[in-house]
């Protein structure tokens, strides 16, 4: 009830703010005389109102953007998820119990939330698996479910700070995916939404940072191993799709792991790692060279199809994109779509989730056409 996203927290904070303001106005005359005690009370009352107002506003902004899922996320507390995570050895395929306990959306999808330990990275964190409506029917009606032959796998990445739930909630990503599948616009879809901010208080930029955490491995090899065991997917190539920092992750992972990804969708993303204060200068220099996407693109013969959705009002990502495009030239198939209005804002991005899925459907349809 009083979690960071809870309605109770929101109501209590706003009522406390209003109560503090009314009490201050009502009783101000009682502390109007100029002595130390009354001056201290007046200053304290002003600070209390400001503190409560900023806290209330912060709660509203966090609900709007889904930046933090819990108080521990906000405070950077390192809860040891490895104690409750499913180890690679004990991970089993999806069961009837998993299906019963899954969250059901109004449009018929099943959402599975797991805490796992990566087989290679040893990262322990949350991952969501969303089975679109047609796949959910298979899971619900069969003891030994078999995936349809035409399914697609899309891995979705949030921003920083951000949580996987943003794709399910504020961004309406899963709802968009469901409606498009029900309308026959996209094939049956499995969405995998892992946590990318696995080191509390540090933006790892989805990289493998020596001595810190192997986040890139967690998001690639570990997610594939998990999906193969839990859902039974085969070796078909995935699509990576992310916004903001997740847009960088989508491009970075797809370009560096062409064996796993065939397509990447960057929504307001950038194209060079943007490090936080926890990464020192020496590490930055090494990582900037290792993760120079333009250099990697030009060094390999196979590159993913890349969709970049950008806004000129989003100065940082727009500048980064232009530098990347200038360097790669024709070395990678790129589609650019401009967001006509607005900057770095989830409400601006919402309609372009559909655009991303539409582009992916068009690419897949073109690839399935027999040669002339």
Topology:
Elements: H1 7-27, H2 36-65, H3 71-75, H4 96-101, E1 103-104, E2 110-117, E3 124-131, H5 133-141, E4 152-157, H6 165-168, H7 173-182, E5 189-194, E6 208-209, E7 213-214, H8 215-230, E8 238-243, H9 245-256, E9 261-267, H10 281-290, H11 293-299, E10 305-310, H12 315-328, E11 334-338, H13 346-368
Parallel strand pairs: 4-5, 4-8, 8-9, 9-10, 10-11
Antiparallel strand pairs: 1-2, 2-3, 3-5, 6-7
Helix pairs in contact: 1-2, 7-13, 11-12
CATH class group of the largest domain: Alpha Beta
Gyration radius from CA atoms, angstroms: 23 Å
Inertia-based shape? globular
Q: Which stretches of 5+ consecutive residues score pLDDT under 50?
A: none
What is the straight-line distance between the termini? 61 Å
- The ordered H/E elements are HHHHEEEHEHHEEEHEHEHHEHEH
Helix content: 40-55%
Q: What about the largest sheet?
A: 9 strands, mixed
Please state the average pLDDT score: 88
Seen as an oligomer or otherwise, the chain set is single chain
The amount of beta strand, in percent, is 15-25%
Class of secondary structure makeup: alpha/beta
CATH fourth-tier homologous superfamily of the largest domain: Alpha/Beta hydrolase fold, catalytic domain
Could you give the order of strands across the largest sheet?
A: 1-2-3-5-4-8-9-10-11
Beta-strand segment tally: 11
CATH architecture of the largest domain: 3-Layer(aba) Sandwich
* CATH topology type of the largest domain: Rossmann fold
By DSSP (H or I, 4+ residues per run), the number of helices equals 13
Summed up, the domain count is 2
């Amino acid at each position: 009830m009083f979690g960071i996203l809870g309605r109770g927290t929101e109501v209590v904070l706003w009522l406390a703010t209003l109560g503090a303001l009314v009490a201050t106005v009502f009783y101000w005359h009682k502390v109007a005389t100029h002595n130390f005690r009354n001056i201290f009370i007046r200053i304290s009352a002003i600070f209390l109102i400001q503190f409560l107002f900023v806290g209330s506003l912060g709660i509203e902004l966090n609900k709007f953007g889904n930046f933090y899922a819990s108080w521990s996320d906000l405070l950077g507390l390192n809860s040891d998820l490895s104690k409750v995570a499913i180890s690679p050895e004990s991970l089993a395929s999806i069961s009837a119990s998993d299906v019963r306990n899954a969250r059901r959306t109004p449009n018929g999808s099943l959402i599975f939330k797991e805490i796992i330990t990566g087989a290679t990275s040893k990262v322990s964190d949350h991952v969501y698996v969303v089975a679109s409506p047609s796949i959910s029917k298979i899971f619900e009606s069969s003891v030994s479910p078999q995936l349809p032959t035409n399914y697609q796998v899309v891995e979705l990445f949030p921003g920083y700070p951000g949580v996987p739930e943003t794709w399910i909630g504020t961004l309406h990503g899963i709802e968009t995916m469901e409606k498009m599948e029900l309308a026959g616009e996209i094939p049956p879809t499995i969405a995998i939404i892992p946590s990318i901010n696995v080191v509390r208080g540090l933006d790892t930029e989805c990289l493998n940072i020596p001595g810190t955490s192997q986040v890139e491995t967690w998001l690639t090899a570990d997610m594939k191993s998990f999906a193969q065991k839990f859902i039974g997917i085969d070796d078909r190539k995935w699509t990576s799709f992310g916004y903001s920092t997740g847009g960088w992750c989508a491009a970075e992972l797809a370009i560096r792991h062409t064996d796993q990804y065939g397509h990447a969708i960057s929504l307001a993303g950038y194209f060079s790692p943007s490090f936080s204060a926890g990464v020192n200068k020496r590490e930055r220099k090494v990582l900037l060279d290792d993760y120079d996407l333009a250099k990697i693109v030009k060094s390999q013969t196979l590159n993913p199809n890349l969709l970049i959705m950008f806004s000129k009002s989003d100065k940082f990502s727009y500048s980064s994109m232009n530098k990347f495009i200038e360097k790669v030239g024709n070395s990678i198939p790129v589609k650019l779509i401009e967001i006509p209005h607005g900057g770095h804002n989830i409400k601006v991005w919402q309609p372009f989730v559909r655009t991303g899925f539409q582009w992916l459907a068009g690419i897949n349809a073109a690839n399935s056409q027999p040669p002339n």
